[in-house]
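Worked example 3 (structure in, sequence out).
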């Protein structure tokens, strides 16, 4: 998740930029990138594999139960299915693992 360092809110997309509650702040949309070898090895351990340029030209990592992770060029990450309170990707990956064990 991308959080505002000022108000702590998750930034949301708005007219081509990201916004939070702070009127004066906005961020340009950040590009999505392929992970490093270390990141990819780690993601693979959790069942994620790289998808390069789908029908929409997007790149991402596809994992169990259609979970999708975007790695961003600012070393952040995002996933629409991740609970908002996960700041580190490791927390999210551990959470997916625990979900899979239960089901
Ligand atoms: Zn803010």
């Amino acid at each position: 998740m991308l959080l505002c360092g000022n108000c702590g809110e998750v930034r949301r997309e708005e007219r081509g930029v990201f916004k939070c509650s702070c009127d004066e702040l906005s961020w340009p949309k950040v590009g999505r990138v392929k992970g490093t070898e270390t990141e990819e090895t780690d993601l693979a351990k959790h069942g994620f594999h790289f998808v390069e340029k789908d029908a929409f030209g997007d790149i991402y990592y596809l994992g169990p139960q259609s979970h999708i992770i975007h790695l961003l060029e600012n070393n952040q990450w995002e996933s629409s299915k991740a609970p908002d309170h996960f700041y580190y990707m490791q927390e999210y990956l551990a959470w997916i693992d625990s979900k899979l064990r239960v089901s």
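Notes: The chain has a mean pLDDT of 86. The beta strands are 12-14, 17-19, 26-28, 32-33, 49-51, 60-62, 68-72, 77-78.
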